[in-house]
Amino acid sequence: MHLFGFVAIVGVAVNNDCYEPEYAKTVSSETPPLDALRDRWRALFGRLAEGQDLAPAQLLRTEGMMETLVLLQLATADELQVAMAECYLECFGHSLADRWGDDWAELFAFPTIPAIMARAPVIPSTKD
Questions:
Q1: pLDDT bucket at 32, cuts 50 / 70 / 90
Q2: What are the counts of helices (DSSP H) followed by strands (DSSP E) for the chain?
Q3: How far, in whole angstroms, is CA 31 from its chain's centroid?
Q4: How many angstroms separate the CA atoms of 50 and 117, rounded?
Q5: What is the mean pLDDT of the chain?
Q6: What is the mean predicted confidence (pLDDT) over 39-54?
């Protein structure tokens, strides 16, 4: 059973091997849902690894996709967290446990994606 028949445009330039350089990727109805989800995690974590921002909608849609796979019994929450942790490791070169501790899955309860952006530089606009 294939859940997704859609086209995702991913334009990500990543300096490491976790994701292909800028291109448009078509995710067809032949793409298994977990593979499509892995592509999304790699795109999200790849942007973060480069220090780029993420659109909240991308994050929320991916979390919704995770929850949908569990609700449709296509995967368990534990299976998805393990797969997500593997994608994180690919992109960052260190594990979620290294970054957030061994209880990272409790800190980021399913289906939350541990995607924390770097703080933006703040330049005062007034003399105060």
A1: confident
A2: 5, 0
A3: 17
A4: 10
A5: 78
A6: 91
Contacts 24+ apart (CB under 8 A), 104-109: 105/81
> What sign has the CA pseudo-torsion 38, 41, 43, 48?
negative
Distance, in Å, from the CA atom of 65 to the CA atom of 27, rounded to the nearest integer, reads 14
| Cβ contacts of 25 within 8 Å, gap of 6 or more | 8, 9, 10, 39
CA end-to-end span of the chain? 60
Cβ(63)–Cβ(111) below 8 Å: yes
Side-chain half-sphere of 69: how many Cα atoms within 13 Å? Answer: 25
Query: In the block, which residue shows the tokens 């924390």?
Result: 116
Is residue 118 pLDDT above 90, yes or no?
Answer: no
CA–CA distance from 45 to each of 9, 28, 57, 94, 104 (Å)? 16, 22, 15, 12, 16
